[in-house]
Amino acid sequence: MTVKVIEVTEAELRQDRDAILSSLRMDEQELRRRVDNEIATASERDALERLKEIAFLLGEDT
Q: CA torsion sign, 25 to 31 to 34 to 35?
């Protein structure tokens, strides 16, 4: 089985994070509150998971 490795730069990850938050028109804290209060849409929950992945790849605490 062949594994495909995708390389991304730190700048690309930060740019992706900014694009996600911009598309949602909210900051990460507001998004987390919506998810925690169970009022987030499915796409908002998916966005938060992606933000967690980006934070992990950047070595940031979430």
A: positive
